[in-house]
Amino acid sequence: MTADVGQGDDMKAVEEKALAIGALRHHALDVKDEFAGQYVYPAVKANALYEGRYPISTALARPLIASKLVEVARKENATGVAHGCTGKGNDQVRFDVTVKALAPDLKIVAPIREYNLNRAEELEYLRGKGVTLPFEVSKRYSVDQNLWGRSVEGSDLEDPMNEPQEDAFEWTKAPEKADDEAEYVSIEFERGVPCSVNERLMKPVALIDFLNKLGGRNGVGRIDHMEDRLVGIKSREVYECPAAVLTLEAHKDLEKTVLTRHESLFKERVDSDWAFLVYAGLWLEPLKKDLDSFIDSTQERVTGQVRLKLYKGGLRVVGRRSVYSLYDKNLATYGAGTTFDQSLARGFIELWGLPTIAANMVEKQREAL
Fold it and tell me: Within 10 A of 233 (CB to CB), how many other CB atoms are there?
């Protein structure tokens, strides 16, 4: 079974190879629309960034792939499923937990993990079986990509001090080679999810693809950070996520425009927990469903438009508007005509600072003893 989540595979070629190396049947599933609408867009509403940097692009696709794997297994009356995850990474957790949650009777086979194979040994095995390899191991990066992002590992990137070379990137221009003129883009949201770009209505897959290209040509979307894997390994990760970076930046700003301070502060904690659960392979964890309910409630007012400015890898929000905006110019302005009564501030300051002032008075008295 191969699921198309926007990775760009030639599905016909994949099927031909599967049958050539011994598969009895091959199931090619186009799940891009489902991935965008039911996985990526909930992540947008949750401002999902693992450790504040990674838009969990690979993690988001795994529960969808695993659920389709179970569906095909049932259709084929299979007693088990197999995957190619190693024992070092996060994906083994995401696949195994999801499969077990949906179909605890299915046996899970993971040959690379079970035989403790490294990449060189994997490639040697494949060559021995006559499988054509489109790359040389000495030059190969390990790449995983879908609509929401592209992850790159291996080779010279395993030294955290090495700057990623340009051959590691495919979706984004080097910022210094991007256009010399800034480009503006307007993203409109309805109840927390993007619905149009530059005032043109777009379906999810087309919208994400458009923003990937727009961000990429402006050098926006490169991420390089140190990441804590679930198994405890500290890992250097390089990502390209132009659409994710643009969309999440705009969405977060719109939330700040329409949510109260208390809602925003609490939602930051919820968003962080949501991102961790998905990263950790717990898409079907009941807590995630609970968090979804809170997040969906906050998104009722996250409707409006955000304007972004892109320039040589840089990204700034330069405008926003919403019918639910809590911003009141008449209250905020320092100019004539303000409706804010400044005389109220003195009493507010007295009450606001009372605990701090009292604590410091007690400390001074204690020191004087």
Answer: 11
**What separation, in Å, do the N-terminal and C-terminal C-alpha atoms of the chain show?**
77
Average pLDDT over every residue of 110-135? 86
Bridge partners of residue 314, in order along the sequence: 311
Q: Would you state the pLDDT for residue 167?
A: 94
How many structural domains is the chain composed of?
Answer: 2
Q: Range of 354's domain?
A: 329-364
**Global pTM exceeds 0.90:** yes
Query: In the chain, how long is the greatest CA-to-CA distance?
Result: 88
185 and 282 share one domain:
yes
Q: Which regions of the chain does DSSP assign to beta strands (E)?
A: 2-4, 28-30, 80-82, 107-109, 142-146, 149-153, 183-190, 193-197, 200-201, 222-228, 234-240, 304-311, 314-321
Region of 8 please: left (phi>0), alpha (psi -120 to 50) or beta.
left
Q: CA 167, CA 165: separation in Å to the nearest integer?
A: 5
pLDDT digits over 34-80, tens only?
999 999 999 999 999 999 999 999 999 999 999 999 999 999 999 99
Verify that 241 and 350 share a domain, yes or no: no
